[in-house]
């Protein structure tokens, strides 16, 4: 029979194997990931985590992707990256425990991580083979870190604890009297090695964030001076704002503008090296750099963008004053073939967008934009250049970090989301939203202000109507707008008694079409339905 002392010693030996192994694996993974992030930031390419994340995004079944978008919304990227890191840490911990007894298995695990990262680079949507360098660096740093940690961990294992039995000391091939002398130095060496590598990983990770996020460096918006527009717009009239507290402002500040894209980290192309290639079914293919683009006669346009993922009453819409060059003029320079019905735009990170050619050429303010609300495009919104095309949902009209325009046919090429079953042409539906009062808000009984925004880009909004408690529809007052490509604020007052009340809104566009009450989900061609809220009057 085993004694209590023997059981205690056995548990102690297990902990002696488990804890150093777990620590070794986790610290190794941290060092490898941080090294990959730092090298990727210095090179301006995708890190191993981003490469793997892009591969996961691009190869996720459509139903699962739509579920994730609906569940996590704009936090989907954070959830995915966090999930990848958690998996790496868990697997790394297991590998560390195994490697403590069989080091080759630990190194084989790191090699497998490297192979997965390399595969992600090659199957990813981008074509930057430099992304292999961070992968190889991460593996090399991981191997060196694991080797150092295992050597230190073995020193802990080979030294018995103070007061250990002579039999235990013999099993470990260490004289009984050596426990007190050897255990502390071995443990101290392992702790110091672990802390040192972890501190280096933390410093590398912080430096990678600093390098990639530096806004005023040679590659940031701060290095670009926007020229004045050749045809500047007049200042917005005061009547575009109704002055209702809580109402969405007519112009969305850059910091508040929604961001929806598939990029796990914000791409940061070097504006000095940036080029836009225009080619495909054209007579005169060409390239243009940023300096040439800024020398062209730029124009301004007030345009509201809307994401197809926007739910009824959602906030994935924003309005800005854009500065850019007309896309139609760019295409005329290339000489587009008459049968090229699609403009296939490619982003710096390899994402693609298919836009109907006739939409760009029909006279609307379709822009290759370089400015947003009087500033160079923020990195999150496409610096140094992007497309802005009014009237279509963003996935077929708004390519951020653009690098390539290919004239082609819908029958020959499918863009990223079209290939996943989303609508090819996706015009924005007429939509309205209630901002005031807030959903489930409390107001004083009597006169109550109702207000919100409505949009029907490139058709314009002619009327907005509201009704309370399923009563008759009543017209709301509309603010003034500079054109048909923006949203419009609306306001009205109603008299209500104490209790719970429901409010519903609908808009009518300039073609006479009334916003449908039929509910539809955002995918594949945009949500439909009336926005309704409830509030309580006291």
Instruction: Give the helix proportion (percent range).
Output: 25-40%
Secondary-structure element order, N to C: HHHHHHHHEEHEEHEEHEEEEEEEEEEEEE
Q: Strand content of the residues, in percent?
A: 15-25%
Structural class: alpha+beta
Measured on Cα atoms, how large is the radius of gyration? 30 Å
Low-confidence stretches: 161-184
- From the spread of the alpha carbons, the general shape counts as globular
* Biggest sheet layout: 5 strands, mixed
The span between the termini is 76 Å
Helical stretch tally: 11
Number of extended strands = 19
Widest sheet: strand ordering: 2-1-10-5-6
Summed over residues and divided by their number, the pLDDT gives a mean of: 88
For this structure, the quaternary state is single chain
Summarize the structure.
By secondary structure, this protein is of the alpha+beta class. The chain is built from 11 helices and 19 strands. Helix 4 runs antiparallel to helix 5.
Label this structure with key terms:
alpha+beta, five-stranded antiparallel β-sheet, 538 residues, 19 strands
Could you characterize the architecture of this molecule?
The protein is α+β, with helices and mostly antiparallel strands and 538 residues long. It has eleven helices and 19 strands. The termini are far apart.
